[in-house]
Amino acid sequence: MRLILKVAILLFCIYSGYLVSAQVYRYHAPHITTASPWINKVTVYNNGDQTEYFKIILWKQGGETALEKQYAVNADSKLTLVMSNFAEYTANPSEIELEPVEGMLIIETASTRIRPKISFVFGDQPSVSEFFLERTLALEYLVPNPIYPHFSWTGVAVMNPNDEAINISFNAYRGSTQVGGNLQNIPARSKYVKLSTEISEGLNYTDFDQIRIFSAEKSFPPPITITGNSRQDRHLFFNAVPTGVDTPSCIGYTFTTDSIVGELLYIPPGTFNQGAPEDEPCHQDDETLFSHT
Predict the structure, then answer these.
(1) Which of 1, 95, 161, 202 has the CA that lies 20 to 30 A from 80?
(2) Residue 229 counted as domain residue
(3) Nearest alpha-carbon partner for 154 in 225, 94, 57
C-alpha cells in the first residue's frame, strides 16, 4: 500500500510540474549604484556551443524588485548590460541599457557555461575595476587591504540576500593584532556599504591589512572591497574569498540555501537510522532499516 502511495505522489509531481531537474546557479553582486558619475556594467559570457539563457534580478535596498528579466547569449559570445549614471556616456550598439538602481544584483542561470562579470567605471576616467562574480555562499570571508601610496581610502560592500536580518562581524587586523571591529545587523535583502572609518571609528586606509567578515547565523555572498583615491581617478574593486570557519555551536541554523531543496540546516556529526522497522504497519521489503554515520 505504501509503495503504491509513493508511486502516485511521484506521478502527481511529474505531471504537475513540481519536479525541476535543472540546477539554478545564482551569482550575487552586493553593490550597484545610482551615484553620479558611476557606470555599472554586467557582461555575461557564454563559452558553450549553443545559446544559453540567464535572468538578471535587480533589488533595491530592502529587497524590492526593480527588474527581473531573462536574456539569451549566443554560443561563444557575450552580452553586456549597462546602468550608467554618467550623462556623457554613449552605449555601444551591442550594449543593453538598463535604468540604474541603488541596490544589489543577482544573475540566475541553469547553464554551467554562463559566467557574469561586473565592471565599475567612474565617469570618463580610464581606470576600470572589473571581476567575475562568484556563486559562493559562506559564513566567513577574508578581505585583504592592499596598501599602495596612490590610494587613500577603502571600504566594503556586504549583501544579505536572506529573508531575515543577520548579524555580521567585521574584525580588522594589522599583522596579528586586531585594530578595529564592529558587529552590524544587516536587514533582509539589503546591503551594507561603508568606508573603513565608518566600519570602525578611526580605522584609516593604512591602519590594517585585512578584515575578517563573518556571521554565526546564516551564510551570505562574497563581500567586495572598494578602494580609491581622493581624485577619484584610480579605483580597485574585487571579491573577498571564503575562509574556514569553526564548527558552529547553533544546531539547526541555515548553513546555506540550495535553489532546489531550499535551506540546508547544520546538524552535528553523529549516527542516525534510516528506513522502517520490520514490525511497522505496512512495512515494505525495500524499507530495510540501516544506520548512517
Answers:
(1) 161
(2) yes
(3) 225
Same-domain check for residues 140 and 267: yes
User: What CATH number did the domain enclosing 257 receive?
Assistant: 2.60.290.11
Extract the C-alpha cell encoding 94: 551591442
Domain identity same for 187 and 217: yes
- Reported as a single tens digit per residue, the pLDDT across 157-179 is 999 999 999 999 999 999 999 99
Cell of 238: 574585487
Sheet containing strand 241-242, strands side by side: 177-186, 166-174, 210-214, 140-144, 241-242
- Mark residue 229 as left, alpha or beta (left: phi above 0; alpha: psi -120 to 50; beta: remaining): beta
- Asked if residue 259 and residue 229 are part of one domain, the reply reads yes
* Helix (H) / strand (E) containing 2: helix 2-16
Residues 6+ away with beta carbon under 8 Å from 92? 80
Predicted local confidence at residue 174, as pLDDT: 96
Residue 46 burial (C-beta neighbours within 10 Å; 0-12, 13-18, 19+)? buried
Count structural domains, the chain.
2
User: What string of DSSP letters covers 24-60?
Assistant: -EEEEEEEE---TTEEEEEEEEE-SSS-EEEEEEEEE
- If asked whether residues 57 and 86 sit together in one domain, one would say yes
pTM exceeds 0.85 for this model = no
CB atoms under 10 Å from CB of 62, counted, come to 11
